[in-house]
Amino acid sequence: MDVTIEHLPFPLRSYGPEGHWSYEEGVLTGRAGARQDRFVPPTGAALDSASDAPRLLGAPEGDFQLIARVTVGFAAAFDAGVLYLHVGEREWAKLCLERSPDRPTICTVVTRGRSDDANAFEVDGDSAWLRVSRTGSAFAFHASTDGERWTFVRIFSLGDEESAGAALVGFMAQSPTGEGCEVTFDGIEFRPNWPKGLRDGS
Question: Is 42 helix (H, G, I), strand (E, B) or coil?
Answer without folding.
Answer: coil
